[in-house]
Amino acid sequence: MLKAENVRKVFGSTVVLDGVNLSVQPGEVVSILGSSGSGKSTLIRCINGLEKLDGGRITVDEFDVSKPRELAEARKRSGTVFQLFNLYPHMTALQNITLAPIQVLQQPKAEAERKARALLAQVGLGDRGDAYPAQLSGGQRQRVGICRALAMEPRYLLLDEVTSALDPEMTADVLGILADLARGGTTMVFVTHEIEFARQISNRIVFLDKGKLVVDLPTAAFFSAKGGMAVPRIAQFLS
Ligand code: ADP
Ligand code: MG
């Protein structure tokens, strides 16, 4: 299980995460909604250890991200895809995907490449392994980014607005891949502005507002008049 308990994060005098509790079970798809600045990215960055907590605790399968000796294990279990394509420009798609499996998991190169090619085929890029990022469209680059995260065989896939820099057609492309992964049982924590898509693929929806987790509800309840929609801030956000 991925678990955040009473997480607090402060930047200067701004409380960015204020007592956030969240748990994600293997197999679940949990979407995080909330307006810009509500703390969604910071929560993701805390989960993968890119930000230090100012209070509370985050564990990934019992490994505490705040303990230096446990962080590496916690990180192996979660893979993150960010909004902006952060592929290495001087490496091909295949090299981008195989880098960490070879260096961190010590997979033999041939095995890492075989797995990477299978992942690329799964996202419709079977013939683009030798392309450099500049030779790929934004949607294709983001699909390579998803492959790069999946190549580490994470138990949890964290996605932070992976489609917000894409045009509608490429967005549909990438969301299609994520829907396939959700159906295949990949556990996901999905930060998004794609509300309708979140509704289709999520088991649960959590809503962040000014660093506080306002609700955590099963998807149907989140969108129901007596559930999430009864919270004025959420009704306003969804309209
Ligand atoms: P979201 O992803 O929901 O848009 P963020 O987590 O990016 O929100 O940001 C939450 C708040 O934290 C914002 O007010 C933002 O300005 C602030 N913030 C985020 N990162 C930093 C940082 N490195 N230094 C200072 N303030 C930051
Ligand atoms: Mg963000």
Report what the structure shows.
The protein is of the alpha/beta class and 239 residues long. Helices cover 38% and strands 26% of the residues. The strands form two sheets. It has a six-stranded mixed beta sheet, sandwiched between helices. The mean pLDDT is 93. It binds adenosine-5'-diphosphate and magnesium ion. The site of adenosine-5'-diphosphate has 11 residues, from strand 2 and helix 1. It holds the Pfam family ABC_tran. Belongs to the ABC transporter superfamily. Keywords: Amino-acid transport, ATP-binding, Cell membrane, Membrane, Nucleotide-binding, Transport. It is found in: Cell membrane.
List its traits.
239 residues, alpha/beta, six-stranded mixed β-sheet, four-stranded antiparallel β-sheet, 38% helix, globular, binds adenosine-5'-diphosphate, binds magnesium ion
Number of helices: 9
Strand-pairing-aware structural class:
alpha/beta
Percent range of helical residues:
25-40%
* Oligomer designation: single chain
How many whole angstroms does the radius of gyration measure?
18 Å
**End-to-end CA span:** 33 Å
Task: List each distinct ligand once.
Answer: adenosine-5'-diphosphate, magnesium ion
What's the rounded overall pLDDT mean? 93
Broad shape: globular
How do the helices and strands follow one another from N- to C-terminus? Answer: EEEHEEHEHHHEHEHEEHH
Number of strands: 10
Spatially, the strands of the biggest sheet line up as 6-7-8-3-9-10
Domain ABC transporter: 2-235
Membrane topology: Peripheral membrane protein
Keywords: Amino-acid transport, ATP-binding, Cell membrane, Membrane, Nucleotide-binding, Transport
Family: Belongs to the ABC transporter superfamily.
